[in-house]
């Protein structure tokens, strides 16, 4: 007799921003387990599936991984169809500042070590779905992690370094999974430049490279209908957290290539469906 399991999406940082919108969107498809210090709120109305919350501090990587492993063992009826590493800390400040150097360990723990450790926990417990569609690991990356001078800004060094490390780790992990767990695809997902309070704070902060404000000033807010008949890459905009979450959800459903970075502005297949 074939055992049947319930599908589960695991999301970090689902209490606010993109993560909160992503949790709400994924609940239409599957049960969701959110990992963050604050719980993800129940969405309005009646969600299609059950929301679970685990209160964890991702800076304590070992404890977070142990807590997730314990929850999975206590809930053997679930199999993970998607793991999304969304949580991140910015670690703002110039690299010569003592406060930034002191905070660097936390930034790397939250942004790099925790995502890889949590993924390893699910893999080592053999809890990734082995259905025909398999499972997806989605790492939310950033253009600030790209090794190009025009995207290198004073004050954003730690965040940029962690996102670069996460993207590189994802590529190596993707190759490892090809060998030991081909049913799991590892995806790098760039959700766009999202119009949030943090984004607005960065643009006006005296401690951030003024070149950052100049560059982002050329990205006005998105308005529905602006991209009809033209490529988003040619008319870039900041976008809402919900729009970004829609893209992440799409990438989890349709992404199959570990080599490709699924970039909101350049993934024409996503925009053609809207």
Mind explaining what this structure looks like?
With 274 residues, the protein is of the alpha/beta class. The protein is built from 8 helices and 7 strands, in the order E-H-E-E-H-E-H-E-H-E-H-H-H-E-H. The chain has helices at 17-26, 61-74, 98-124, 157-180, 197-204, 210-217, 241-254, 268-272; strands spanning 6-12, 31-36, 51-55, 78-85, 135-140, 184-190, 261-263. It has a 7-stranded parallel sheet, sandwiched between helices. Strand 5, helix 4 and strand 6 form a beta-alpha-beta unit. The radius of gyration is 18 Å and the shape is globular. The mean pLDDT is 92.
Side-by-side strand order of the widest sheet: 3-2-1-4-5-6-7
Distance linking N and C termini? 41 Å
Oligomer type: single chain
The string of secondary-structure elements, in order, is EHEEHEHEHEHHHEH
* Count of β-strands: 7
- In helices, the fraction of residues equals 40-55%
Overall average pLDDT: 92
Count of individual helical segments: 8
Question: Which class do the helix and strand fractions yield?
Answer: alpha/beta
Shape: globular
The poorly predicted ranges are: none
Biggest pleated sheet: 7 strands, parallel
Strand content: 15-25%
Feature tags:
alpha/beta; 274 residues
Topology of helices and strands:
Blueprint: E1 6-12, H1 17-26, E2 31-36, E3 51-55, H2 61-74, E4 78-85, H3 98-124, E5 135-140, H4 157-180, E6 184-190, H5 197-204, H6 210-217, H7 241-254, E7 261-263, H8 268-272
Parallel strand pairs: 1-2, 1-4, 2-3, 4-5, 5-6, 6-7
What's the gist of this structure?
The chain is an alpha/beta fold and 274 residues long.
């Amino acid at each position: 007799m074939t055992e049947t399991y319930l599908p589960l999406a695991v999301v970090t940082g689902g209490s606010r921003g993109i993560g909160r919108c992503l949790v709400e969107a994924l609940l239409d498809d599957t049960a969701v387990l959110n990992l963050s210090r604050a719980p993800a709120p129940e969405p309005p109305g009646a969600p299609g599936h059950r929301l679970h919350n685990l209160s964890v501090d991702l800076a304590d990587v070992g404890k977070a991984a142990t807590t997730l492993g314990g929850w999975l063992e206590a809930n053997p009826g679930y199999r993970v169809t998607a793991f999304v590493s969304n949580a991140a800390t910015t670690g703002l400040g110039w690299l010569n500042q003592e406060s930034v150097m002191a905070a660097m360990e936390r930034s790397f723990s939250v942004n790099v070590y925790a995502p890889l450790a949590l993924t390893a926990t699910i893999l080592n417990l053999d809890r990734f779905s082995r259905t025909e569609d398999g499972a997806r690991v989605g790492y939310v990356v950033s253009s600030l992690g790209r090794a190009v001078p025009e995207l290198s800004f004073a004050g954003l060094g730690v965040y940029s370094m962690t996102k670069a490390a996460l993207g590189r780790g994802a590529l190596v992990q993707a190759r490892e999974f090809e060998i030991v767990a081909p049913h799991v695809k590892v995806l790098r997902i760039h959700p766009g430049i999202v119009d949030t309070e943090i984004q607005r704070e960065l643009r006006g902060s005296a401690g951030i490279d003024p070149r950052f404000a100049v560059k982002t000033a050329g990205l006005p807010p998105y308005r529905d209908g602006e991209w009809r008949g033209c490529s988003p890459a040619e008319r870039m905009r900041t976008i809402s957290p919900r729009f970004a979450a829609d893209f992440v959800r799409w990438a989890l459903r349709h992404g199959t290539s570990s080599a490709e970075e699924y970039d909101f502005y350049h993934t024409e297949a996503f925009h053609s469906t809207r």
